[in-house]
Amino acid sequence: MLRLVVDLNRCQGYAQCAFLAPDVFAMHGDEGLLYDPQAEEAQRERLAQAAAACPVQAILVDDLDRDLAGVAEARDA
Amino acid sequence: MHEVTLEHLKREGRIVVVGASLAGLRAAETIRDKGFTGSLTMIGDEPYEPYDRPPLSKGVLLGKSTAERTALPRRRAIDAEWRLGTAATGLDMAARRVKLADGEEVPYDRLLIATGVRARPWPNAAEGELDGVFVLRTRDDGTALARRLDAGPRRVLVIGAGFTGSEIASACRERGLEVTVAERGDAPLVGALGGVIGAVAAELQRENGVDLRTGVMVTGLEGDSTGRVRAAHLSDGTTLECDVVVVSLGAQRNTEWLAGSGLGAGPRGIACDAGCRAFDIRGIVTDDIYVAGDVARSPHPLFGYQFLSLEHWGNAVSQAETAAHNMLSVSTDRRPHIWVPAFWSSQFGVNIKSVGVPSMGTEIMITQGSRAERRFTGVYGYQGRVIGAVTFDNSRWLQFYQQQIETTAPFPVPFPTVDRRPDGHRPVPADFPDPSVPTHGPTITLSGYSPADRRMTFTPAGH
Ligand SMILES: Cc1cc2nc3c(=O)[nH]c(=O)nc-3n(C[C@H](O)[C@H](O)[C@H](O)COP(=O)(O)OP(=O)(O)OC[C@H]3O[C@@H](n4cnc5c(N)ncnc54)[C@H](O)[C@@H]3O)c2cc1C
Ligand code: SF4
């Protein structure tokens, strides 16, 4: 599972993410963005492309390149 | 008690964060980013790892996600000891210890308080406990409400038409559910954006099939013999049948656990200086206790040093970063929290965004687009300067007006703007229900390109 968040203060509704990873991001109305904050493993590549393509760098995804050491810590607590 | 030196603190100090949500997490990441290698403890009363709340009233209610899927991504590993599901119950400022509900005490050298707010409950506790009555603040609230909406209630009543209440009503309509919104004020969003914009929000609701009732209060909720809510009584004498009620009456600060500690914490939050250091009850700033996020109240130089409480996602992130930076810096390296307030909301298919402090505005002008088209920019003026802006599906203009706010640009907006319509030439009263009357003072402008090299320039009053 990949966790993500979009800084919607920054997001300008350019919709690049919705083109590149349509299973995760969708435009809602003319410039609003709706997304699922958790994505399946199979979306990893598309999500990486979407995050890289966002012109305002509003998309934060963890777990993308490596398994963050310590990310499991919260689940164990 | 020896005051540890900064180097020693960074190497082997003890930092405790109370409130393991957005502000707490982002602060913890910044603390590690700054090279802190000591012990870091995250104390949170919710049993979950930090998660994001805004989706709870949007994608989660629309069935595009679930409340369980909102865990926040990490910017980096934080190597913390997590005490989740455990509330902090007290603070001993002299001994520098946080007391926990399980009786344990956690010592600290630096403490960050990020305990946020909770939903204001329905004032009548017995009515509030009826089956079918909800609030929406936590992951558990989101799960419970989404499940109930899935079951297809006959009518949902939303009490309070602020941002959260309006978003809930919007989600209900999008799902084809009948929804009534009861609002004490004259229009939705009127407290945050004023009556001129509130009128647009009211039209949006009605066009989308919301049974919007303004100027009324819900005086009581009624249950059936099995303890399920079945009706609400309104101050205009009417009774409304409803099987789901969402109480959306704003928030209360989570500061009770600090009662008697000597910290300046109360119902209005925890006051801190511009560097996020908490004040004690004597009005003296502490040097080891910091505050960030929804629970904080901090003076903002751009807005006459008024203490602002901002229940905004972006504020929690920015203030957490500043607090974390400052707790690991010598005094001359500290930074003020001078984030320009900003938020977004999405309702009825419209993307609403704002910068600055619209509620300080006394006048508004529509500088781009038109209200009739539901696509416009409204600029708020206060004492001859631009103080805030709001956009409906027009967010590309916001950054420009943010600069106008930062540089205390004059109001009314003098230049001819792109896409200006005839009704946008003159300012009209912004029509806030209870205009605050802040004092005259020196103005401050912000300069510099990144938060790190932002500078403040003082301009004496009466320029
Ligand atoms: C439904 C909803 C929709 C929203 N939508 C938007 C939006 O569209 N745009 C926007 O800008 N903002 C939005 N927000 C606001 C945004 O989510 C908050 O500003 C943000 O969550 C603040 O983060 P925080 O960490 O300061 O506080 P919180 O997220 O409130 O976290 C505080 C944490 O501390 C815990 N805690 C409290 N007391 C104790 C204690 N004694 N011991 C241990 N732990 C404790 C709490 O349980 C909680 O987990 C929304 C909020 C909600 C609820
Ligand atoms: S690509 Fe970035 S700016 Fe565009 S919609 Fe997605 S998040 Fe927003």
How are the strands of the biggest sheet of chain B laid out side by side? 3-2-1-7-21-20
Rg of chain B, rounded, reads 23 Å
Content of β-strand of chain B: 25-35%
Biggest β-sheet description of chain B: 6 strands, mixed
Q: Give the CATH architecture of the largest domain in chain B.
A: 3-Layer(bba) Sandwich
- Could you tell me the radius of gyration of chain A in angstroms? 13 Å
Low-confidence spans of chain B: pLDDT under 50, at least 5 residues? 435-445
Helix content of chain A: 25-40%
Describe the overall structure.
The complex is a heterodimer of chains A (77) and B (463). By secondary structure, chain A is of the alpha+beta class. Chain A has one domain: Alpha-Beta Plaits. Chain A contains three helices and five strands; from the N terminus they run βαβββαβα. In chain A, strands 4-1-5 form a three-stranded antiparallel beta sheet, with helices on one face. With 463 residues, chain B is of the alpha/beta class. Chain B folds into three domains: 198 residues, 3-Layer(bba) Sandwich (FAD/NAD(P)-binding domain); 130 residues, FAD/NAD(P)-binding domain (3-Layer(bba) Sandwich); 94 residues, Enolase-like, domain 1, CATH 3.30.390. In chain B, 19% of the residues lie in helices and 31% in strands. Chain B has eight helices and 31 strands. In chain B, helix 2 packs parallel to helix 7. Chain B is globular and about 60 Å long. Chains A and B meet through strand 1, strand 3 and helix 3 of A and strand 3, helix 7, strand 24 and strand 25 of B. Bound molecules: flavin-adenine dinucleotide and iron/sulfur cluster.
